[in-house]
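Input (structure):
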């Protein structure tokens, strides 16, 4: 896969995970998606189920799902393009029995059949183009058990959001983290770098790239992959999705 499809020379499928694995839980522990696990639980049977997460990262969502399911012991599988991320996930105590694999989930996913496949907040947007998203959706469709669903959590990005920007993320007496972003509305792509400057240490760069889709665009790709939209809400709690919603939690079943 050419790195240029990500909009940033030198960027590869594992770049994001490798760049953020050591700080991900610290930086994004307060990400406002805790309610997503509610949606996952609603799409699971009361009995133990087979669950696959696409883009497992540090395992934070699977860990929350284990807690939410209480005494129900699901068969958990996670895949991520970054080995640095899967190593972190493997160290999570609640995931000691989970199957964790390193792979680009637009190219291959762990075999078997699953009662739920899910993709956390904007993780699907880490894929660089329609072709890669279509492949990922087709792979997910191929492992869904009868009646199972693929559940996706994603932002709704609008044309007026398009801008290039430099902001300060963190600043102390000995350290500053700058956020540098470039938004190409025509390509529906946002790329960025977190630039970390710390007294007495080399500069650290943490690059990222997302290629976002409108809900209708995602639905069209899902149809092409043999999936159909079963339900869509503005969050994981089941809030009604409206034209003003800035996020959607969507469940797809087999067409």
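Output (sequence):
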């Amino acid at each position: 896969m050419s790195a240029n499809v990500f909009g940033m020379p030198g960027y590869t499928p594992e770049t994001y995970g490798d760049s953020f694995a050591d700080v991900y839980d610290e930086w994004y522990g307060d990400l406002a998606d805790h309610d997503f696990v509610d949606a996952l639980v609603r799409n699971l049977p009361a009995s133990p189920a087979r669950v696959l997460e696409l883009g497992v990262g540090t395992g934070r969502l699977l860990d929350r799902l284990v807690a939410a399911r209480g005494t129900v012991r699901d068969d958990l599988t996670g895949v991520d393009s970054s080995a640095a991320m899967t190593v972190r996930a493997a160290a999570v105590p609640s995931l000691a029995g989970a199957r964790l694999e390193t792979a680009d989930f637009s190219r291959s996913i762990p075999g078997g059949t699953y009662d739920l496949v899910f993709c956390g907040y904007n993780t699907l947007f880490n894929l660089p183009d329609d072709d890669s998203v279509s492949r990922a959706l087709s792979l997910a469709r191929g492992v869904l058990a009868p009646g199972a669903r693929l559940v996706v959590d994603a932002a709704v990005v609008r044309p007026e959001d398009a801008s290039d920007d430099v902001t300060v993320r963190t600043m102390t007496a000995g350290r500053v983290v700058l956020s540098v972003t470039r938004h190409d509305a025509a390509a529906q792509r946002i790329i960025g770098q977190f630039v970390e400057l710390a007294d007495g240490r080399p500069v650290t760069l943490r690059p990222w790239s997302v290629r976002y889709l409108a809900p209708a665009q995602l639905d069209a790709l899902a149809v092409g992959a043999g999936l159909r939209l079963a339900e869509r809400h503005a969050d994981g709690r089941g809030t009604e999705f409206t034209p003003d919603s800035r996020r959607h939690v969507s469940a797809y079943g087999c067409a």
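Notes: The domain at 159-210 is CATH 2.20.25.570 (N-terminal domain of TfIIb). The mean pLDDT is 95.
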